[in-house]
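Suppose you are handed a protein chain with no further information: no name, no annotation, nothing but its sequence. What can you learn? This example shows the usual starting point.
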Amino acid sequence: MITLTFAGQVSRARRAVFERAAARWDTVIETGFDPIRFEGAVLTGVRIDVSISEIDGANGILGQAGPTVLRAGSELPLTGVMEFDRADVERLEGAGSFEDVILHEMAHVLGFGTLWRRKTLIGGTGTMDPRFVGPAASREFAALDPDGGRAVPIANTGGAGTRESHWRELIFGDELLTGFLSGSDRPLSRLSVASFEDIGYEVDYGRADAFDLPSFRELALMGITEAVRTCDLCRMGRTEPIVLDE
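A reasonable first move is to predict its three-dimensional structure. Written in structure tokens, the prediction is:
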């Protein structure tokens, strides 16, 4: 089970957003593990350290999220961090997207995008058509698009926190784990659930949301008409995790 620790002043309402995200991910993937002693405590699930503080004001650095310490052997997260700029949080709350941002960024703490390279799950890196090559996600993509190729298209634009660490928005539209806040529903697809299986988790596909690939018209209605757009999630920093010694 995911454990959240809050540093500084995080309101009850904001804590509840993080708690709902953790509860959702705990239904999708198995985050528990055999007891591990770390920093004077015994952990049996992923610990995420959360803070909301002054960084640089609205529309600057949104924050940082990712795993910080990985378990030996599986190299799945033991601990992670989620840090956000207070002014940007207020802006996201006003836009009604804060909850989805937290659910999205918690996925990165759990390894989505942040552990792909370590686990050799990216093909065609550095090209205009990088792909996620995990077999479970590739199977789910083939079910969505039988003619789409043998692996899953991932982001080919954006900075280090976005490129090759999200699904490609021009194909997947409003799916929760593209690098942009597109649409309004932002479903968590079986494809995303499958990617966690490829990372090494046990997963529950029954917890995925209904999802179909959007048409060109649907993409246009979401405002997705070009490959390079203003991107909130591109302004997130990523961590460089270490592996805990056995």
